[in-house]
Amino acid sequence: MNIFLISILTLLFIGAISAVILFFVSKRFQVFENPLIHQVEIALPAVNCGGCGYPGCHGFAVACVSAESLHNLVCTVGGKATMENVANILGKTASPVIPTHAVVHCGGNCEKRPRNNYYDGVSSCAIAHNLYGGETGCTFGCLGLGDCEVVCKFDALHINQVTKLPEIDEEKCTSCNACVKACPKSIIELHNKGIESHRIFVNCVNKDKGETILESCSVACIGCEKCMKECAYDAISVTNNLAFIDSYKCTLCRKCVSVCPTNAIVEINFPLKMSKSFEN
Amino acid sequence: MGGIHPKTYKFSAGKQIQAAPIPNQAIIPLGHYLGGPSLPIVKAGDRVKVGQMIGQASGFVSANVHSSVSGIVNKLDSHIDASGYNVPSVFIDVQGDEWLESIDRSIEIGRECTLTSTEIIKKISESGIVGLGGATFPTHVKLTPPPGKKAEILIINAVECEPYLTCDHQLMLEKTEEILIGITILMKAIQVEKAIVGIENNKKDAIDLMKKYAKSFAGIEIMSLQVQYPQGGEKQLIDASIGRQIPSGSLPIEVGAVVQNVGTTFAVYEAVQKNKPLIERVITITGKSVKNHSNYRARLGTPLANIVDHAGGIPEDTGKIVAGGPMMGRALVSLEVTVAKGTSGVLFIQTPEAARKKMQNCIRCTKCVVACPMGLEPYLLMSQSERSMWTEMEKDRIMDCIECGCCSFCCPSNRPLLDHLRYGKSSVGKIIRNRQTKK
Amino acid sequence: MDKLIISPSPHIHSGDSVSKKMQQVFIALVPAYLAGLYFFGIGALIISFTAMISCVVFEYLIQRFLIKGSPTIADGSALLTGILLSFNLPSNLPVWIVIVGSLVSIGIAKMTFGGLGNNPFNPALVGRVFLLISFPAAMTTWPKPIPFNMEYLDAVTAATPLAVLKGQSPEIPSTLNLFLGNMGGSIGEVSALALLIGFAYLLLKKTITWHIPISILLTVFVFTAILYYADPNAFIATPTFHLLTGGLMLGAIFMATDYVTSPMTKTGMLIYGVGIGLITVIIRVFGSYPEGVSFAILIMNAFTPLINTVVKPKRFGEIKKA
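^ Those are the sequences you sent over. The predicted structure of the assembly is below.
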């Protein structure tokens, strides 16, 4: 009996002393942080994706609290709702959020852009890009090895195993920019979502001359400039054999889509009409 | 330190160098791997002769390009090269074989050289000579030490440690005296009294022949070296021949050495004594299933397919075609690639051997650490590269890696060590360059 | 001709593989196995087969049903763990205890850490130490060495030579018997001769280098020599006695040299070996257990990551020569 009592009392005593020591230490070495930072942080989605340009959600919260205004401080994952929440907490105004989403600029699937060699190295786009031009004749096009899929934290990007091209799920994409940075060939870009998600863009990044690239891919942009001549709004420019559509000038009239000889210009989310549509 | 002993497979040893057939159309690339690409000075329709300059060096670290055939320029366009990318090239439709009158085509050996050191370097620069060992670094840049540094010794790299290749070996057997004269010219260019020629001891006939002729030349020592890969690596060769190790991040000139490949030396002889710019080089066609293992003297710009056809055609069981040796060469996407200044050979690897085996976990057997000639830890660097730990990799000396491939060669778990090391090296290199430009 | 294969250099390989390495170790273990069968008879046979089969089965089941990865039993490492575990057990151990040992070796010491290459501790030794602590009585009754003994569970038992040091028996076998293996002990540890033949084979095939075994044996020899010559009456065992008895030879040659748990540089290996030697002698002479090799190796396994961080290989271009 004595042993039990002595053991229990000893342990209680040690516990009590430790608690007192811990109490004083925590008070003495406390790091003061503006309580607003914590309030803002819990309003954020807590994904720590870095899409805002700051290190994690805590970093973004610190930036919001210390900045003069919320101009250029946008959480792409949380979007408008989250920024308005943050604005309310801090008594500032949220900057307008233009919804964007990631777009892959390559239409060269296995059928249209046949593979002429077999890559046997490490299955990573960065490493393959470091080695050579790729499994096809187009040295600018998508390698299909999935570096973009690996970095996406929102399950929005998957490589289609049949076409070997990445496919982005519009609902899940949060424009966090991770896939844009991961692609060694800079094929993925962030585009504005557009009215009713309608979009038109040139589905190619190839800068080779027309005759050269047609040998390797049948849906490439050959720089023929037909689209540029057709556009009545001066929205298309062609540099280095590659056409580019300025989405701020584009009125979505779809005339360029119909004149493109190789179907390199694609339209997304339009109702199926007489013109060629790209299957999303 | 380190190194491996792969089977040497020198099937083409002793095969006399034969002239490769001149193609109907030569496609000469304007760019090299190291240095700025040259700028074309001809256009479609121009008539050119052999040895005529068609590309001008675009800066100090760049080289001139000369036509290797005579005929009419067809066009200036992109063409695939060994990297798989399309690079600017000059397409020439071949007509006849007319050489520039200034080139001395006689077979007499030119022994006297009355040019000064500066004139020699200028001649080498005009002739478009680059390192023919594979690195293709412009030779005149190597021969011009930076201010404050003086060369003490010239080292000739005749090691040819890569399995299968025999072009340097055969060149030494057939052009011994010319090479030695080339060495004296180089010695004069960098103003040194002593030169060492490093040859692996499995090339006994070359060593004996070189020793015999070297007796009549002052200051040239023929050194027989242990057979090991990568004995021919610049740093390893300097360590083996004069016992000095180049400090991390430095060039050979730091320890007073200038290293040149023996093929480059022969090109220097031809340029200085015969007025002949770099328009052709020796390449080896080899592989286990190749019908006629051969050494060819091929004009630059000849499509490799032509030469391979002459050597018996592509073997049926080919899985991989490699430009260069099996340890550091590049796998080719097609045989349309043409002979460039850095092409040392074409190797055909059979299908079962060509495919990689499945990767397993690292079993920490230390084989890669033992094999690394630079004293690095490849197993650790690969793990760090997979996790993008660039700071740690820089501390662990990733920039010292010479990409020799010894680690991947000996790994029992078939881990692609060199793939990750190379990627890590290029990523850390970018970070270092950004840091330096910010300063 | 199919599509050409493109991959980065190098384009040739030495042909070495994990299974080749395991095969070399197996061949090196054959002399010791034969010695074990000779001295301990049917018990050795039953236990070695039970351990090997159960290790392979457990690894397959865990990989297939728990981890859901591809099976790796073909590389031979589970089989090797099995035989090394059995070499560390007395030949009258019941089958069910051996199976528990295999489960601990493979399931806890190896697969929980991620399979081959990821375990910080030697799996066979973890299994052995687990059994030693859980079943101390069964694990410390050693059968007497009787050629081709047909008695399994009822084998006649006797004290091992090391137990003699702890004052448990007055009899010490002759040095020749100790060398050949005619003494009590675990199945694979008794015959120094057989183990040394295996060592020679491993050195010849370049599977291991001399650094770890020699540094362990030399440290034990020197340390015990110092103690013996300082006070022969207190420390009755000669250095030779210490080298030839217990699991030291087996541990030094086959257990401590396990690739995964030993250091990556030659200098690191020497430090590791010296550490094992010191701890072994301390436990044998000053500790309460008669044998200390298993514990010594496991303790030094814990130090291996530290040794790897501190001891780096000699870098090229580090020392500036004139």
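The two ends of chain C are 56 Å apart (CA to CA). The domain at 18-310 of chain C is CATH 1.10.3430 (Ammonium transporter fold).

Shout if you want it in another format.
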